[in-house]
Design a protein that fits this description.
The complex is a heterotrimer of chains A (about 220), B (about 950) and C (about 80). Chain A is of the alpha+beta class and about 220 residues long. Chain A is built from seven helices and eight strands. The two termini of chain A are about 35 Å apart. The C terminus of chain A is likely disordered. The radius of gyration of chain C is 33 Å and the shape is rod-shaped. Classes of the chains: A alpha+beta (about 220), B alpha/beta (about 950), C mainly alpha (about 80).
Chain lengths: ~220, ~950, ~80
């Protein structure tokens, strides 16, 4: 049973915005709506890293939890989708989402929000697969064609991975192994700054940076 | 996917509530009743229980739709990412990544992922019809009127002043066939005043590198970088200019390769580097020779390689050891000794190591010397002709390599044959026209004289006639696929635009040329809509010399025409159509215009470009490669099995001999560890046999694998063939053609065939590379300060060249300008170095990519990167608009981006913007509906005079500016 | 007394009339809220239509295969 996930390898991401325009192009997204964005930290200084962010298709999605009209659902593959016909544009999901995935096109003279739009993992929405209606409302349904999201398939350095969680974590694990470091990137130490690793190991505060000999990075 | 239209079937709040309410409650009104029955019907239509055959109305249309898949190549940079376009009933509806491509494996950057926009008709910002500037306003005209008026005006100027009064700027975005046809076209028109983007991009590379070892192109490939152990990027921001190349580099890095980035800015490429070196803009030679100092000092050079294959390294060594000790290096470029030693050790000890450079090295007054310094470094380390090594020169536009090879160069016919009488006679033969007839087209004595360059066209217009080295001043410009805002001295350019009799723009977009002209003139400007590369087929040469074939995706949109069709149409107007199309297969396009097939043009290229081996890449072989991409190995680019077995992908030139010889192409140049029929090679014997008593030919024992001749030898001609006793291996037919010829002019290919296939020898000889290029201004590369240098003390120590009285037909200043700048204390009034470069979202002059909404949204405004210290000194805050002032008196208004990316004293502005002029939006000067979505100041409005001493490349990378807060 | 009953009746009738009038044509202001349960249109799984026609296993296999296009190691090795 496939469980769809995104994973962006920050060591590879060069902030080329290929994922951003691939999404725009594939789903015909209007100006002002950014389903996918690249976020850069430490811009312009050593330590600069970028990561591509869109909807994370959470297992326990906060957007779904707070929606007053319950327009969200999770498909069997773990993709979080919503019904635009139900959406009232209240914006609660936007407040709830830690990734800023929900997007609202500006409409009307008073900036009234339109229907919420977000990354669909290129899985369309609750309309007939690959129909005109589905494309107009939700964008392309690549999953129904046996393809994967356009952003990941077109990533310039194959930093952004999308697909079944097991498969992409295998791909990422291989890279990490080859690099010789980096598995702690997604760990608790990085997320919470907890000095869990023993002194001297990579990731621990005060540890020497990974030695350049052997040259793997 | 229009979310805001109320007419969508998605109802707004109240009716929706009513509908759902109506479904549950017994209360019923007529509206609810109707809605309920509507819902029921709708639900039925979308229920998944329906059998497959019953499809919704939208789907039903698809049944009768003709769906095709067309394979093409992105048109935005020289990496050459393949794209599969889905076309339904002639409309481009989808694009898919081509995972099979060995070059990009399906990857794209922002531009490649959005090329489908070129097929969108609604809200297109394309130039849709021919237009004429009438009394300051753009008027739509028909094609016939356009061709006739433009043609008549050009003919009148030609009659009055001679053919050199018209300047034809061709394009690096033309495919090979169009670029080649352009060179033929201007030759028949009678002028060498033609050029294209390579001038302002890698012209110094081509000259410097070709004069070092034979060919001036990327020696290895993007793919081959996976074999490297250490890559030095100097003046290259690959992460933004060649993003997909980073796929190969980062893969290599993951597997142990080191990456060093040398740049005045901490670029996005530097963010991935193991070692970042910040140098002062323009000081590449001290840096590179500073590395050599450590290499020589520690004995890290490759003495065998130098002895066998390099001439003059001893002279270079003497110069380096005398001049570029660590103290001198630090003084000039700012890099401390420790870092220099570290980088030198990385390059020397992690071999094979490669060097990558782009505009950072080329766009200087000493660009030709800088690129040679890079070559010398690699020669010293023995890295040339080695997989994983090489001089990896990343070219810019998608077909700048092809246009340089076979296109409109002012100083050469296609294939770098030059302009000598012999070259002209050779091409007259190939083109099937009388040499004397071509000669008559030219003004007296101008046929063998290189034209002037696109970087200086404004001076060819403006300078007093007695100072220029051609009869008339230039009176008419034809901008055929080139932008104006990528050339320096925008302020002077509008003056030249005022003075012209005629300006013609042939482009898919009006380009900034249209707006600049409309801003300063009332008439005399024509815009002709050209088709993009997606609206025609043809071949394109990537930076690694692989040639890919593009299929035509869609018919030309609106009223546009492919460039080669327009060339034929103008040739007809000018009276040389029959000569132009003599050998081509002609068809009629949908409007009945004559169009030569790209295949037949490529076949003519195959018959004449023996020098660089564009002869084996027949259309059939190329198309076969495009259909069988998955059979090619990614690291070696070689096909294993399949219909292309043994070929290298795209038959990278040189692919010697005719198609029947089945040469596989040359993925890495000068590689002696391979047989010449296996893609191997050696350095070219192009500079003579001996110099100062030292042989210029390769030493004994240095030769391509399997060669019958195991020492150095000159290039092959009929004399050498006879001397070696190999002449009789030619067939009788070949002998007839090859008699009296050399390998470059033997159109039978017999000399090449016998030398290569029978004896494993290289037709262009086996020689040493030259570390000392005696025909250049500085035989050993010397550092010279830029004309607008921030360091008068360095100017005193390292002054620039002397002025030249006539250089590419124009007087060219060096010392007089530099001295005046020092005397006028320009560096004090304009203390910040202004450099420019690329953004990943845009390409070149930018009007095309800034017309794509998906790209334009990502970079809506032009900006200047300024260090916090400099910003604070001027009380400038991040995000506020500022004036950037130039010593020319120009000033431009850009948004400030305060960042540590640039060091104090350096600023950076991207060069892709145009459409603002010194603070004013030029929207009104564009034809209606054809202005780019985002507009901004062109950095080149504020750039200054400065030209390379060999190729007239513009000095864009180092000039001076002052930044001022807006009052 | 009759007057009082009548008075009460009138009040009761008035109240009932008011209630009934209030009930006429009134629509609830909110939809019936079932917390956490999706209220929208049904959606079909990605393998429902052609080319998979309900074959989930085939879709899974195809997707897993296709994911390897994002892994250049598969084609390059190291």
């Amino acid at each position: 049973m496939a469980r769809m996930k995104f994973l962006c390898d920050a060591e590879r991401c060069i902030e080329c915005n290929g994922c951003v325009t691939a999404c725009k192009q594939e789903n015909d997204i209007p100006w002002g709506v950014n389903r996918r964005r690249v976020v850069t930290i430490n811009d312009g200084v050593p330590g600069e890293r970028s990561i591509s962010v869109a909807c994370m298709h959470c297992s326990d999605a906060p957007c779904a939890a707070v929606c007053p009209v319950d327009c969200f659902y999770r498909s069997e593959e773990g993709v979080v989708l919503h019904d635009k016909d139900l959406c009232i544009g209240c914006g609660y999901c936007f407040y709830a989402c830690p990734f800023g995935a929900p997007q609202f096109p500006q409409a009307g003279a008073f900036g009234v929000r339109g229907k919420m739009d977000k990354c669909t993992f290129c899985a369309g929405g609750p309309e007939k697969d690959n129909s005109e209606a589905e494309f107009r409302k939700y964008g392309r349904n690549r999953l129904a064609e046996g393809k994967l999201p356009a952003c990941a398939e077109m990533c310039s350095t194959k930093a952004l991975l999308a697909g079944d969680g097991d498969t992409i974590s295998e791909i990422y694990r291989q890279r990490v192994t080859v690099r010789g470091k980096g598995s702690e990137v997604w760990g608790w130490g990085t997320a919470y700054g907890r000095p869990e690793a023993p002194k001297g190991a990579p990731g621990a505060p005060g540890a020497a940076p990974a030695a350049p000999t052997g040259g793997k990075s | 996917m229009l979310l805001t239209r109320k007419s969508d079937s998605a109802p707004s709040t109240a009716p929706r509530l009513k509908r759902l309410a109506g479904a549950r409650l017994s209360t019923m009104d007529r509206r609810t009743f109707l809605k309920r029955s509507g819902v029921a019907a709708g639900a039925g239509a979308f229920a998944s229980q329906l059998p497959y055959g019953a499809i919704a109305p939208a789907q039903a249309q698809k049944e009768g739709v003709k769906v095709e898949k067309k394979r093409t190549v992105c048109t935005h940079c020289s990496v050459g990412c393949a794209v599969d376009a889905t076309v339904e009933n002639g409309v481009w509806t989808r694009q898919e990544p081509v995972f099979e491509s060995p070059i990009n494996l399906g990857a794209h950057c922002a531009k490649g992922a959005s090329v489908r926009e070129h097929g969108i008709i609604e809200h297109s910002h394309r130039l849709k019809t021919p237009m004429k500037l009438v009394n300051g306003k753009w008027q739509k005209i028909g094609w016939d009127q356009a061709i006739n008026e433009v043609g008549d005006k050009i003919l009148a100027i030609k009659k009055d002043s001679g053919p050199d009064a018209i300047y034809w700027v061709g394009s690096s975005k033309h495919n090979n066939e169009q670029a080649y046809l352009m060179r033929k076209f201007v030759s028949f028109f009678g002028t060498n005043n033609c050029d294209h983007q390579a001038r302002i991009c890698h012209s110094t590379t081509v000259a410097g590198v070709a004069n070092t070892w034979g060919y001036g192109a990327m020696t290895n490939s993007y793919n081959d970088m996976q074999n490297t152990k250490c890559a030095l990027y100097i003046g290259s921001n690959a992460a933004e200019a060649h993003p997909v190349s980073m796929l190969h580099m980062l893969h290599a890095k993951e597997n142990g390769a080191k990456m060093i980035v040398v740049d005045p800015r901490f670029t996005r490429t530097a963010a991935k580097a193991d070692e970042f070196v910040r140098i002062r803009s323009g000081t590449d030679i001290p840096f590179l020779f500073g590395l050599l100092y450590h290499i020589f000092k520690n004995g890290w050079e490759d003495p065998q390689y130098i002895n066998d294959r390099v001439y003059g390294m001893d002279k270079v060594k003497a110069d380096v050891m005398a001049k570029w000790n660590p103290a001198a290096v630090e003084e000039v470029c700012g890099v401390p000794e420790a870092q220099m030693a570290k980088v030198a050790e990385m390059m020397a000890k992690s071999k094979p190591s490669t060097i990558v450079w782009c505009m950072g090295q080329t766009q200087h007054t000493i660009g030709n010397a800088m690129v040679r310094a890079s070559c010398i470094l690699q020669l010293a380390l023995g890295n040339i002709g080695v997989p994983g090594g090489g001089a990896n020169i990343f070219r810019g536009h998608d077909n700048v390599q092809g246009a340089t090879d076979v296109g409109p160069n002012p100083d050469s016919l296609p294939g770098y044959y030059g302009l000598s009488t012999g070259a002209w006679k050779f091409f007259a033969g190939v083109w099937g026209v009388d040499y004397e007839w071509i000669k008559k087209q030219y003004a007296e004595g101008m046929m063998e004289k290189p034209g002037t360059t696109v970087s200086r066209w404004i001076d060819a217009v403006m300078y007093p006639n007695d100072t220029i080295d051609q009869g008339p001043n230039v009176r008419a410009m034809v901008y055929w696929g080139h932008a104006p805002n990528s050339q320096t001295r925008g302020k002077d350019m509008v003056e030249a635009m005022k003075k012209l009799d005629l300006m013609v723009v042939i482009d898919p977009y009006p380009s900034a040329t249209a707006a600049m002209c409309a801003m300063v003139r009332k008439d005399g400007v024509y815009l002709l809509p050209a088709a993009t590369q997606f609206e025609t087929s043809g071949s394109v040469t990537a930076s690694n010399r692989s040639i890919q074939w593009r299929e035509k995706v869609i018919e030309p949109l609106f009223e546009s025409k492919p460039d080669h069709t327009l060339m034929v149409r103008f040739a007809d107007k000018f009276g040389f159509k029959n000569e132009l199309v003599k050998n081509f297969e002609m068809t009629k396009d949908k409007d009945g215009w004559d169009e030569p097939t790209p295949e037949s043009i490529l076949k003519e290229i195959n018959r004449c470009t023996w020098t660089i081996g564009y002869t084996g890449q027949s259309p059939e072989r190329l198309k076969l490669h495009m259909q069988n991409m998955s059979t090619f190995d990614v690291k070696t680019l070689r096909a294993r099995g399949g219909p292309c077995d043994g070929d290298y992908f795209g038959l990278p030139w040189p692919c010697y001999g005719n198609a029947a010889l089945k040469h596989p192409g040359s993925p890495n140049l000068y590689q002696t560890s391979r047989h010449v029929m296996d893609g191997g090679g050696c350095f070219r014997a192009n500079f003579g046999v001996e110099r100062d008593g030292v042989s210029l030919l390769a030493a004994d024992g240095s030769y391509p694998k399997g060669s019958d001749l195991t020492m150095g030898y000159p290039e092959f001609d009929h004399v050498l063939m006879k001397k070696l006793g190999w002449w009789d291996e030619l067939t009788e037919d070949e002998k007839k053609v090859a008699e009296g010829k050399n390998w470059k002019t033997d159109t039978s290919g017999g000399i090449i065939r016998v030398a290569m296939k029978n004896h494993g020898c290289h037709p262009f000889g086996n020689a040493k590379a030259r570390a000392v290029v005696w025909n250049f201004p500085d035989a050993v590369p010397q550092h010279r300060e830029p004309l607008y240098s921030p360091r008068p003390d360095m100017v005193a120590k390292y002054p620039t060249h002397d002025d030249k009285k006539t250089f590419w037909r124009l007087p060219t200043q060096y010392k007089s300008i530099q001295d005046k700048n020092v005397a006028d204390k320009v560096a004090e009034k304009f203390p910040l170095v202004l450099t420019s470069g690329r953004l990943v979202e845009y390409e070149g002059g930018g009007d095309e990519t800034r017309s794509n909404p998906w790209l334009a949204e990502l970079q809506p405004e032009n900006f200047i990167e300024i260090n916090p210290k400099d910003a604070n000194d001027r009380r400038i805050q991040d995000g506020e608009y500022v004036w950037v002032q130039s010593p020319t008196g120009a000033q431009i208004s850009v948004k400030s981006l305060v960042t540590e990316r640039v060091a104090p004293g350096t600023t950076f502005i991207p060069f892709h913007f145009a459409g603002w002029w010194m603070g004013k939006d030029m929207l009104e000067y564009y034809p209606e509906g054809a202005a780019p979505i985002t507009r901004g100041e062109a950095v080149n409005t504020a750039t200054t005079y400065g030209y390379d001493s060999v190729t007239m490349m513009q000095e864009t990378k180092t000039t001076l500016c002052q930044v001022a807060k807006k009052a | 007394m009759i007057a009082r009953i009548t008075h009460l009746c009138v009040i009761a009738c008035g109240a009932m009339a008011a209630l009934m009038l209030a009930g006429c044509g009134e629509r609830p202001q909110v939809i019936e809220y079932k917390q956490g349960k999706y209220q929208g249109k049904p959606d079909e799984p990605p393998y429902a239509a052609a080319p998979f026609n309900g074959d989930q296993a085939k879709w899974d296999r195809d997707i897993r295969n296709r994911t390897q296009n994002q892994n250049e190691y598969k084609r390059i090795g190291s």
